[in-house]
Design brief:
13 strands; alpha/beta; ten-stranded mixed beta sheet; about 1050 residues; glycoprotein
């Protein structure tokens, strides 16, 4: 290090790169090579070996920030850089020359750097913010309503209310546009439009339901705009005296032919569709100019006969107030017809996958044969995160202005009723003039007769083609109608399949994946196009525009309500992941937009609103039931976290009370899949009632393998698959007891923390090392010291299934991920014959097998027969021994079982003791009515059973150890499991009690479904671990039913008081 520069100098690390270059690669165990590039990061195609000397001097494998480290997409022909792991940065290369492979090899990086790269895939057609968003949205908004219904709505509602309708619609769409902009700028937007935005914000439940509804609404909108086009063509045919069948069927025929042609344009590809949209936009602009010019030109006599008089203040004043006519003549009736014309604001977002991406969102290409594109190819404004907000908001602004202008100008030039007859131009004088009806009287026209008879065929209230009549050149308005209707229909015909395709690819609903297949460079969903075509044709057959428009209003309003709610919900959760670059939105405005949208749904058509909401709830319920395996980081997840956190914190303000006591269990299962019976039993009485946490202790040093094994998600997956409501907590520790201490003291959060330790019984304690037994008993002592209650479950057939998994296809040579676990020293419950043949520690199992192995069935999963739950409440532990069977009885599986409570007593006071215990248990309101006093529980056990007990502890007697040649006089702290004669003498009474209790259990509970016994307590330092283990073995041995040894922490968990 003699060349080390001074610390106060400015160092250019690049200058030293050549002198101290890292020319080596890190070699993983799987044979992959990871090369450190000059500018940081790892190349997966390296060739050299690991050399610790290369990591000295100024070089480091630490990498500067890079786009590749955060992206999850690939760039053709370019090797993706990978961030070095914390283990690689933190570990000493000299200690481990072969670090585990911590980086994944991408599919595109398998060629050698010297090989010639293949030709890149064809770049799909992309659009900028003007052509891809603003023009598309404006064309979709300028639909059939603009030309064919806006003049009629102005006549019905008047200019004042029409402006309110327009502004209210624009307010809803504007707020929705702001919400859409915020959601669209909170991350990279892909294909799927509205569905993608909602599903990735609110989750698959609401996203899936609204995706189906929005796709269906767009398909119906295709029919609406096509029918508008067909109405115009049919009207032109009727004016020229030609017809095919009759007006209704003519509209149907023209509509089906039109949508078939539009389908052909769509199937030709997005490029042709976009060119057609630009043409339609140009035609509409010309038609607008033609209309404005027509309003300024003085009206000839023919147009005056039809009610057009150019700009007149009297006409404006008359048309400013409403004139409701017909059964649908109301404010909300007009609103329901107009609102679909404002619903095209998501046309740009719906093709989000076809928008260009800027260089800021694309990684630089690094290859010889394909240089990076120049900056002008992907301009900054083409980024979907910028294109969607800018294009959408400008489209809303300009279309709103155009609607207001057209409503005001048409209402200032045309009267509501006109006959169309030129001979009505002479205004009578005298009394006849006083009888003239209508605003036209002031301009020398008398349309009184048709007004009185309601036979006027012209005017704003009667003639849908008023804009054509007013314009300077009527065919241009017809062309504008064609352009507006066809462009809107074409936009919806493209939007619906694109949204539906994204929904199909997510596979949230069965049977729809068939329609998600894409074709060509743009991944066109041809099958979804055909489905949209069929739905649109079905609604075209209705052939009535005023009937179709209200149908889709509720669906669009429902979509807008959820978009606004998505923005509000994401904002209110305060999730760090909610960071939209679009700042001009308000969460409260989004909430108002959502509420107003729902209110208007019911004001328009209450039954249609109920149907729409019912469909959403049905689809929502289905996804909630199926629980698809997707994780999009939705705001619902953030909200769940906030709610859970707030509730946990609020519990700190509430003191514990006996009435609210719940057995919160820390279950030492190891990998939960290896002890399903233990998991099922505890899950039975904790499900929907209290806390259950499965603890897994991984023994060994801290390494990536052991940490991954402890934190593997496969354990949680197994629990969820088994429908066990439990947490999982894995720790890495040097030995079993240390890990148990970590769990006992660190598990839980605030008040939600375990108070009961549940373990499996250690059946192989006589065959394992004495230190293993000492650790097992030490865990019990530690739990008592920490004021835990303890439950130990023993089953005749054992609890551990690891030997079964090792015997079925887990080939160690094929394993890529390892679990290191202590199978014998604390959780052991398998058959003794099996235990002798397998390793004591560090057995390995494939993590993937934990998920794929069929679920093992246990006795606790089935419905119990009409048997008994025998409770031996021999010592008062606070009532936990009684509470657990009560909780079991509340479950359907155990409801048929009868609880019998056994207590010790004296033969001369049996009745008195029974009455006393019956009264006490009755006050606890547990429903236990059969209570038996055992007077013979204190008798001496049979000699043969005493002999078995002595055989159990014999190998651990000091005399036996001395005979085996071991050093005599071992200090108790070095061998605390040894049993001396003094220990036997001090604990003689307790030993005889356990032997006698087993005899009683054999007599009374041979056919029980479950036996629950108060567990004896061995004094620390007084009762050797071998003696204590012999007590537990003797008490629970040779019993067919499962045995649960229970000991509370000597604090009351039952009370008969109400406060």
């Amino acid at each position: 290090m003699e060349d080390r520069p001074q610390t106060n100098e400015v160092i250019n690390l690049t200058a030293f790169r050549g002198q101290y270059s890292v020319s080596t690669t890190l070699s993983g165990r799987d044979g992959h090579k990871y090369t450190l590039e000059e500018n940081g990061g790892y190349d997966v195609n390296g060739v050299a070996s690991h050399n610790p000397a290369a990591l000295s001097r100024y070089d480091t494998i630490d990498s500067p920030p890079s786009y590749d480290f955060y992206a999850n997409t690939e760039v053709f022909g370019r090797t993706r850089k990978l961030r070095p792991s914390l283990f690689q940065l933190h570990s000493n290369p000299e200690d481990d020359s072969c670090p585990p492979p911590l980086y994944e090899e991408t599919s595109n990086n398998k060629e050698s750097p010297d090989e010639e790269l293949a030709d890149p895939p064809l770049e799909p057609t992309r659009f900028g913010w003007v052509q891809g968003v603003m023009i598309r949205c404006m064309l979709n908004i300028w639909g059939v309503i603009l030309y064919l219904r806006l003049p009629w709505i102005t006549a019905q509602a008047g200019i004042g209310f029409t402006w309110i309708i327009i502004l209210l619609s624009s307010c809803i769409t504007g707020i929705t546009g702001l919400s859409t902009s915020a959601i669209a700028t909170n991350g990279k937007v892909k294909g799927g439009g509205t569905y993608f935005l909602i599903s990735r914000s609110l989750g698959p439940e609401l996203g899936g339901s609204i995706g189906l509804i929005f796709a269906f609404a767009n398909a119906v909108a295709v029919a609406m705009h096509t029918v508008g086009f067909a109405e115009t063509v049919q009207a032109l045919m009727q004016e020229n005296g030609s017809t095919m069948v009759n007006p209704i069927n003519d509209i149907r025929i023209i509509g089906v032919i039109t949508i078939t042609c539009l389908l052909a344009i769509s199937l030709a590809g997005m490029e042709w569709e976009s060119k057609a949209q630009v043409l339609f936009f140009f035609v509409i602009m010309v038609s607008f100019a033609n209309y404005i010019v027509g309003t300024i030109i003085p009206a000839p006599e023919e147009k005056q006969a039809k009610g057009f008089f150019s700009y007149k203040a009297d006409i404006f004043a008359a048309n400013f107030v409403p004139d409701w006519r017909g059964p649908g003549g109301s404010f909300f009736g007009m609103f329901s017809i107009f609102f679909p014309s404002a619903t095209g604001i998501l046309a740009g977002a719906n093709i989000s996958g076809d928008l260009k991406a800027s260089l800021l969102s694309q990684p630089c290409h690094r290859q010889r044969s394909h240089p990076p594109p120049p900056p002008h190819v992907f301009p900054r404004d083409a980024d979907p995160n910028i294109a969607i907000p800018r294009g959408t908001m400008l489209a809303i602004f300009w279309t709103t202005v155009s609607y207001l202008i057209i409503s005001a100008t048409i209402g200032s030039c045309v009267v509501r009723d006109a006959s169309g007859f030129v001979n009505h131009t002479i205004l009578m004088s005298g009394s006849d003039a006083a009888r003239c009806l209508g605003t036209a009287c002031k301009f020398g026209w008398d349309f009184s007769e048709c007004i009185q008879n309601r036979t006027c065929i012209y005017g704003l209230s009667n003639y849908y083609q008023t804009m054509s009549m007013v314009s300077g050149f009527a065919p241009l308005i017809a062309a504008g109608i064609f352009g507006a209707t066809l462009s809107s229909a074409l936009a919806c015909l493209v939007s619906a399949p694109k949204v539906f395709q994204c929904l199909c690819k997510d596979r949230l609903y069965p049977g729809i994946g068939f329609f998600g297949k894409g074709y060509g460079k743009n991944d066109e969903p041809y099958r979804a196009y055909l489905l949209t075509y069929i739905i649109a044709v079905c609604f075209i057959l209705i052939a009535e525009l005023n009937t179709i428009a209200p149908i889709i209003s509720n669906f669009f309003l429902c979509s807008y309500a959820l978009i606004n709610f998505s923005c509000f919900h994401a904002s209110i959760t305060n999730s760090p992941g909610w960071r939209p670059s679009f700042r001009y939105y308000s969460k409260w405005a989004s909430l108002v937009g959502a509420v107003v949208s729902v209110v208007i749904m019911f004001l328009l058509t209450w039954w249609a609103a109920l149907i729409a909401i019912g469909i959403v709830l049905f689809l929502l319920g289905y996804v909630l039931y199926k629980k698809p395996s997707v994780n999009w980081g939705s705001s619902v997840q953030a909200s769940s976290y906030n709610m859970a956190l707030n509730h946990c914190v609020s519990l700190n303000q509430v003191d514990d009370h006996i009435k609210n006591y719940r057995p919160q269990c820390l279950v030492l299962t190891g990998p939960p899949s290896l002890r399903p019976a233990l998991v099922d039993f505890v899950g039975t009485f904790t499900k929907n009632h209290s806390l259950m946490m499965c603890g897994n202790i991984i023994t060994g040093g801290t390494s990536p393998d052991t940490v991954d094994a402890a934190n593997s998600s496969s354990h949680v997956t197994w629990l969820n698959k088994r429908h066990i409501k439990s947490f999982y907590h894995g720790v890495v520790a040097s030995d079993l007891r240390t890990g148990a201490q970590m769990l006992l003291q660190g598990a839980g959060l605030g008040r939600i923390r375990p108070n009961i330790l549940v373990m499996g019984f250690k059946k192989n304690w006589r065959k394992c090392a004495p230190t293993s037994m000492e650790n097992y008993i030490g865990i019990l002592h530690d739990a008592f010291d920490l004021h835990y209650g303890i439950c130990v479950l023993r089953m005749k057939e054992g609890l551990d299934l690891s030997h079964h998994m090792q015997a079925h296809g887990n080939d160690p040579s094929k394993m890529k991920t390892y679990i290191f676990m202590m199978l014998n020293p604390g959780f052991e419950a398998a058959a003794e014959s099996v235990l002798d043949t397998r390793p004591a520690v560090n057995s390995t199992l494939d993590l993937h097998s934990l998920e794929t192995t069929p679920q093992a069935s246990t006795v606790f999963q089935s419905k119990q027969e009409k048997k008994t739950i025998d409770v031996y409440w021999l010592f008062d532990d606070g009532g936990l021994t009684l509470l657990l069977p009560y909780l079991l009885k509340r479950k359907k599986r155990w409801a048929r079982c009868k609880v019998r409570v056994f207590v010790g007593g004296e033969i001369q006071n049996i009745e008195e003791q029974k009455q006393e215990l019956t009264t006490l248990i009755g006050k606890f309101r547990l429903g236990f009515h059969e209570i038996q006093v055992l007077p013979d529980v204190n008798e001496k056990p049979q000699p043969e059973h005493v002999k078995k007990f002595e055989d159990l502890i014999g190998p651990y007697r000091i005399q036996a150890i001395q005979k085996n040649g071991e050093r005599a006089g071992l200090p108790s702290r070095d061998s605390p499991w040894t049993v001396s004669d003094e220990d036997i003498e001090k604990n003689m009474a307790k030993s005889f009690r356990q032997i006698r209790l087993n005899e009683v259990l054999q007599d009374y509970s041979r056919d029980a479904a479950l036996i629950i016994v108060t567990m004896p307590v061995g004094r620390r330092g007084v009762c050797p671990s071998a003696l204590y283990m012999a007590w537990l073995e003797t008490l629970s041995r040779d019993l067919r039913p499962p045995v649960l040894l229970v000991r509370g922490n000597q604090e009351s968990v039952l009370t008969f008081y109400c406060q």
